[in-house]
Design brief:
transcription; WH_DNA-bd_sf; nine-stranded mixed sheet; DNA-binding
């Protein structure tokens, strides 16, 4: 027996003094209301209602039980309301600041279809990790080494001019004797890639090739880095989809393979599992990630 449903029928019939009217108020057929009240009476072993051809009245036992039945029904309704509100409560997710708005919109739509009302919060790598640690975000897409991540985003170099080559080699940035006094081309690293497994590999390559320290520079923002590149012959370290959005020509780096790695940080294992499974493809598209075969995620 469904105790809540039986109590709901009992309360409605008792309040209206009629099985027909009470059943209508409870939005159930009259025979169903009769069966549920009868089942409740059998469960308790005593009659709750006195039935006549014209009316229904409470028995002494029914009068004593009505307040408890009403509280149970009200509690069940409150719980159902709370469950709906909990499912609709925004799921704050810290995401990379490089995720374009159209991609975030599609991610939110996919999340809703999976029962998650995502509230994306764009932030840099360090801030995302902190938001997850302090529980200011329910979960965060954090930067990790490529081999330990759930998503991988290949990086390369982008410029205003089409390089007309399949790959760009940093050794071509070395200045010759004839142009010692000219402005040397630089590689700009945006904040999203200011993480050890990306930044340190670029700077080590810079030193190995004999480039000047200033030829690899970490920018204060993606906007600042992109503006410097568009206004010069400099290069931007970025993902291919970022280059497309900025109208730049992108090529992989010839000397080294650089990849952003991403994974989910969350306090609750269920949140991490849901994001990594149900929304794996949607998050991958938002990040511009690739599959193991090199295709778009």
């Amino acid at each position: 027996m469904d105790l809540v449903a039986a109590c709901r029928a009992f309360v409605a019939v008792a309040e209206y003094g009629s099985f027909t009217t009470g059943a209508a108020a409870a939005r159930i057929p009259q025979p169903v209301a009769s069966r549920r009240v009868a089942a409740l009476e059998e469960h308790f072993g005593a009659r709750l209602l006195e039935r006549t051809s014209r009316s229904v009245t409470l028995t002494t036992f029914g009068r004593d039980m009505l307040p408890s039945a009403r509280r149970l029904v009200e509690l069940a309704e409150t719980m159902e309301h709370d469950a709906v509100q909990a499912q609709r409560r925004p799921f704050r997710l810290a995401v990379p600041a490089v995720c374009a708005s159209p991609r975030l919109v599609r991610l939110v739509v996919e999340g809703r279809r999976s029962g998650l009302h995502l509230d994306p919060h764009p932030a840099g790598p360090g801030e995302r990790a902190e938001l997850s640690r302090t529980l200011e975000a329910r979960a965060a897409i954090v930067a990790v080494t490529p081999d330990s991540g759930a998503w991988r985003v290949p990086l390369g170099l982008a410029s205003t001019a089409d390089p007309q080559v399949p790959a760009i080699y940093l050794e071509t940035l070395r200045a010759g004797r004839a142009d010692n006094h000219q402005q040397r081309r630089r590689v700009w690293i945006q904040p999203e890639d200011d993480v050890p497994h990306v930044r340190d590999r670029v700077t080590r390559l810079r030193d190995a090739l004999g480039l000047q320290p200033a030829q690899v520079t970490v920018a204060t923002s993606l906007v600042a880095a992109a503006a410097s590149v568009i206004d010069s012959s400099d290069l931007l370290l970025c993902a291919e989809d970022q280059a497309d959005e900025l109208g730049l020509h992108w090529r992989p780096i010839g000397e080294v393979k650089l990849v952003r790695g991403y994974d989910i940080s969350a306090t609750l294992g269920e949140d991490r599992r849901q994001l990594r499974t149900q929304l794996h493809a949607a998050i991958g598209r938002c990040l511009g990630a690739v599959n193991d075969d090199g295709g778009q995620a």
